[in-house]
Write a structure and sequence with these properties.
The complex is a heterodimer of chains A (449) and B (284). By secondary structure, chain A is α+β, with helices and mostly antiparallel strands. Chain A has five helices and 29 strands. The longest helix of chain A is centred in the N-terminal third of the chain and has 34 residues. Among the domains of chain B are: 82 residues, Alpha Horseshoe (Serine Threonine Protein Phosphatase 5, Tetratricopeptide repeat); 51 residues, Tetratricopeptide repeat domain (Serine Threonine Protein Phosphatase 5, Tetratricopeptide repeat).
Chain lengths: 449, 284
C-alpha cells in the first residue's frame, strides 16, 4: 500500500485538472477558431441574411444608366459570378434577364423576391465615380451604401481595376468575404510574360524581348520577377509591372537561375540556381548582399520555391529521393520535411507547389497515369484531395482568397489557363490564345493602381 | 712464230672448252632450280598457312577480348546502375521511413485519444475514479530535466492526454500559428513524460514555438537543451544551426562563428554542416 501525503495528492489533482483543461482547450481550439472564423473573419458589414449551408444567395445587379453603364453592370455582375459565393440573377441569356430589363435600375422588391434574390445591387454613376447601394430583398430596405471614386479614363486598365475593387467590396458586404476580382494574373505565352485581369480582359505584354519563364508577383502588386535566357544562361529579372527597364539580380548573371519567389514581406527573393553540381535554392536580400544557399541537394535538383504566408517556411520541389517530390523546410534551410506522400517504387512524381494564403493548404501537380493533375494537401492532417481530372492540368497558383486556383490545362486541346473554384469544382477558361502556362496570381491590387 | 702459236693453242683450247657446259649439266642444274623453287613454295605456303592460323587465332582472341570487354563494360554499367538504384531506393526508404514515423506518431496520438476517452468514460461511470498522475503540470524552462522523476501516467490516469497526443496537438497549434498554445503543450509533455522518445523533438519544437513568439532567448535555451541533452538526436545539428543563426541575428558574429564551427566538427555529415560551411565563408 502506498501512502500519499494529502498535500501532494491535492497538488496532483490540481495538476491533473489543469492538464485536462489544457487538453480540452487544445482539442476544442480548432473548432472554436473555425466557428469564429465562420462568423466573421473579414471585419465586413454583412447584410444580415441567413444563408443555408451549401447554397449561394441570389443577387441581382441592376442596370446602370450613364457613361459606361452597360460595361459597369457587366463587369460587376461577372465579378460577382466569378467569385462563386453568390448566384447572380439576370445574367445575359437567362429568363430573369428579360424580366429585369423591364424595370431597369428601378426598385421592385416583389419582382426581385419572385426571382429568389436575397440582395440587389443598385449602382448610380456620379461625377466622381459610382454610388452603390445594396438592398436586402427580404427586409425590403437598403443595408449598405457607399461612394467610390473612379478614374476619369473609362474603359482603361486602371478604371477596370477600380471597378473590380467595387465588385470585391460588394461581395464583402453580401457574403462577409472580399472577392478577388481586383487582382491580376501573370503568365507565359510563347516565351513572353503577359498580365491579365481575372475576368480575362486587359491582357498585355510585360516582358522585354528574350525567352522568359516562371513569373512571380511581389507582395506590393507593383513589382514582378521572372527568369530570362541570356548569353550566359538564365538570369532573374525584377521590374515594374507598369513598364520600365528590368533589373537583373547581380547574383544570377551566370548559370541556370529560374523560378523566383518573393518573400511575403517583399524583402527577399528565393530562386533555384543550377550548375554542374546540381540545382539548389538560393535566398537573396533584394536590398543587397550575396545569395545564400538554403538546400543541400547533394547533386539533385531543388526548384520552385514558394514561401508560406508567414514567411517562415518554404515549399519546394526536390529530386533528392530519386524523383521529384514536394518538401517543406524552414526558411533558413533546416528542418526539411517530405510533404507529398508516395509509395516505394512509385515512378510518378509530384512538383510545383503553391502555398495557399490561408497557410493551411499546398497545391501541387501530381502525375496520375502519366498525366498531371492538380492536388491539394492539407498541412493539418496531410490529407490529399484531387481537384482536377479533365485533360492534363499543371502549375497551380492560389488566389488571395485561398479558394480559387489558376492552372494550365489542355482540356480544350491546347494549353490554356483555367480558374477553378476548389469548393464547388466550377472551372472557367481565363485565356483563349493557345500556349498559356506558368500562371502566378497577384495579391489584392487595391493599393497598387 | 709457229712455235709461239703451238704454245698458246693448249691455253686457248682450255679456255674455250671450259666455257661450254654439257646438256646434262644444264638439265641437272634446271632440275635443281625446280626443286629449290618447289621447296621454297612449299615453305612459303606452310608459313602462310601458319601465319593465317596465327592471324585467325589473334582475331578470335581479339573478338573474345572485345566481347569480354563489352561484358565488363555492361557489367560495370549494370553494377553502377544497380548501385544508383539501390542508393535511390535507400533514399526513398529513408523518406518513407520518415513518412511512416509520422503516420505512426499520428496513430499513437489517435490511440491515446481513444484511451483517454475510455478512461474519462470510466471515471464518469465510477465516482471512485482513478489515481491522478503526480508531478508538476508545467515547467517554465521547458527543460526535459524538470519533473524527470515523474512517471508516465498509465491509461488509467483519467483523461490525461498521452505524450503522442500532446505532441500532435502542440504541433498542430504551431502550424496554425498559435505558438503560445503549442509551447504550453510541449512544456506539459516535457514535464509529464520526460522519458518519452518524443522528448528531443518536443524540446526542438519548443524552441520553434519560442521563436515564433519572438522570444529569442527562450528559443536559444530550448535549442541548447536539444544539443546538450540529446546530442545523438537528428534534431541536434538543426538546433545547433538555429542557435548559430539566432546569434548572428543578434549581431554576435563571434558566437555564431563558434557555434557553426562546432556544428561542422560535431556533425560533419549533416546537411546543416554543409550550410554552416557556406555561412562561415560569408559571415562578416
Amino acid at each position: 500500500m502506498i501512502i500519499v501525503p494529502e498535500r501532494i495528492t491535492r497538488a496532483s489533482h490540481g495538476s491533473t485538472r489543469a492538464l485536462v483543461a489544457f487538453a480540452i482547450a487544445l482539442l476544442l481550439a480548432p473548432l472554436i477558431t473555425r466557428d469564429a472564423r465562420g462568423q466573421d473573419t473579414t471585419h465586413a458589414v454583412r447584410i444580415g441574411l441567413t444563408y443555408q449551408p451549401g447554397t449561394k444567395p441570389g443577387v441581382i445587379v441592376l442596370a446602370i444608366r450613364g457613361a459606361w453603364g452597360d460595361s459597369l453592370q457587366a463587369i460587376i455582375a461577372r465579378d460577382l459570378d466569378y467569385g462563386d459565393r453568390v448566384e447572380v440573377i439576370g445574367l445575359p441569356g437567362t429568363p430573369a434577364a428579360s424580366s429585369l430589363a423591364g424595370i431597369g435600375p428601378g426598385v421592385s422588391y416583389p419582382l426581385w423576391k419572385s426571382l429568389n434574390a436575397a440582395a440587389a445591387v443598385q449602382t448610380t454613376v456620379t461625377p466622381s465615380g459610382l454610388h452603390v447601394a445594396v438592398h436586402d430583398v427580404t427586409g425590403r430596405k437598403i443595408v449598405q451604401v457607399a461612394d467610390f471614386p473612379l478614374p476619369l479614363a473609362g474603359g482603361s486598365g486602371e478604371w477596370r481595376l477600380a471597378v473590380h475593387g467595387i465588385s470585391d467590396e460588394i461581395e464583402q458586404w453580401i457574403t462577409g468575404t472580399r472577392g478577388v476580382a481586383q487582382t491580376r494574373i501573370l503568365f507565359v505565352r510563347g516565351g513572353r510574360v503577359y498580365v491579365v485581369d481575372t475576368d480575362g480582359f486587359g491582357e498585355r505584354l510585360v516582358s522585354d524581348a528574350g525567352l522568359s519563364l516562371s513569373p512571380a508577383w511581389a507582395p506590393d502588386g507593383l513589382t514582378i520577377s521572372y527568369s530570362v535566357l541570356g548569353s550566359r544562361g538564365w538570369s532573374i529579372v525584377t521590374r515594374s509591372v507598369a513598364g520600365g527597364a528590368g533589373r537583373t539580380l547581380p547574383s544570377t548573371t551566370s548559370g541556370l537561375n529560374t523560378t523566383p519567389a518573393f518573400s511575403p514581406n517583399g524583402l527577399t527573393l528565393a530562386y533555384s540556381h543550377g550548375d554542374e553540381a546540381g540545382t539548389d535554392l538560393m535566398l537573396v536580400d533584394l536590398a543587397g548582399g550575396g545569395p545564400r544557399r538554403i538546400t543541400v541537394g547533394h547533386g539533385s535538383d531543388n526548384t520552385s520555391p514558394e514561401f508560406s504566408p508567414d514567411g517562415r517556411k518554404i515549399a519546394f520541389t526536390s529530386g533528392r529521393a530519386g524523383h521529384p517530390e514536394v518538401y517543406i523546410m524552414d526558411v533558413d534551410g533546416s528542418n526539411v520535411e517530405l510533404l507529398t506522400p508516395f509509395n516505394f517504387g512509385d515512378r510518378n512524381y509530384r512538383s510545383n507547389p503553391d502555398w495557399a494564403p490561408d497557410a493551411q493548404h499546398v497545391a501541387f501537380q501530381s502525375q496520375i497515369g502519366g498525366a498531371f493533375q492538380i492536388m491539394v494537401i492539407s498541412l493539418r492532417d496531410r490529407s490529399v484531395k484531387q481537384i482536377t481530372s479533365e485533360g492534363v492540368n499543371e502549375d497551380p497558383a492560389w488566389a488571395p482568397d485561398a479558394r480559387h486556383v489558376v492552372f494550365t490545362s489542355s482540356r480544350t486541346g491546347v494549353r490554356q489557363l483555367f480558374i477553378l473554384d476548389s469548393e464547388s469544382g466550377r472551372a472557367r477558361q481565363l485565356t483563349h490564345a493557345g500556349g498559356a502556362r506558368l500562371a502566378a496570381w497577384s495579391h489584392s491590387l487595391g493599393h497598387a493602381r | 712464230m709457229i712455235r709461239g702459236v703451238r704454245c698458246l693453242l693448249p691455253v686457248v683450247l682450255l679456255a674455250t672448252g671450259a666455257c661450254f657446259a654439257t646438256r646434262e649439266d644444264v638439265q641437272a642444274l634446271h632440275a635443281d632450280v625446280q626443286t629449290l623453287r618447289a621447296d621454297n613454295a612449299r615453305s612459303d605456303s606452310a608459313r602462310r598457312a601458319s601465319l593465317d592460323r596465327v592471324v585467325a587465332s589473334l582475331n578470335i582472341v581479339r573478338d573474345s577480348l572485345g566481347l569480354l570487354s563489352n561484358r565488363v563494360v555492361k557489367m560495370q554499367g549494370d553494377v553502377r546502375g544497380d548501385l544508383y538504384n539501390v542508393g535511390q531506393q535507400l533514399l526513398q526508404i529513408q523518406e518513407l521511413t520518415g513518412q511512416s514515423q509520422q503516420r505512426v506518431q499520428e496513430l499513437r496520438a489517435s490511440l491515446e485519444a481513444k484511451q483517454s476517452d475510455i478512461a474519462s468514460t470510466s471515471v464518469s461511470a465510477s465516482p471512485a475514479g482513478m489515481s491522478a498522475p503526480t508531478g508538476s503540470a508545467s515547467s517554465p524552462s521547458g527543460s526535459p530535466r524538470a519533473g524527470a522523476a515523474t512517471p508516465a501516467p498509465s491509461a488509467g490516469a483519467g483523461a490525461t492526454p498521452g505524450p503522442n497526443q500532446l505532441f500532435q496537438i502542440s504541433l498542430e497549434q504551431l502550424r496554425r500559428g498559435s505558438p503560445g498554445a503549442a509551447r504550453t503543450g510541449l512544456q506539459t509533455l516535457l514535464a509529464q513524460y520526460p522519458t518519452s522518445d518524443l522528448v528531443p523533438d518536443a524540446q526542438f519544437y519548443l524552441g520553434e514555438a519560442y521563436k515564433q513568439e519572438g522570444n529569442a532567448a527562450g528559443a536559444d535555451s530550448a535549442y541548447a537543451a536539444v544539443v546538450s541533452g540529446y546530442p545523438t538526436s537528428p534534431r541536434a545539428p538543426t538546433a545547433l544551426y538555429k542557435r548559430a543563426l539566432g546569434m548572428e541575428e543578434k549581431g554576435n558574429v563571434t558566437g555564431a562563428r563558434g557555434l557553426l564551427n562546432d556544428l561542422v566538427q560535431r556533425y560533419p555529415r549533416s546537411d546543416e554542416a554543409s550550410l554552416a560551411k557556406e555561412r562561415l565563408r560569408t559571415l562578416k
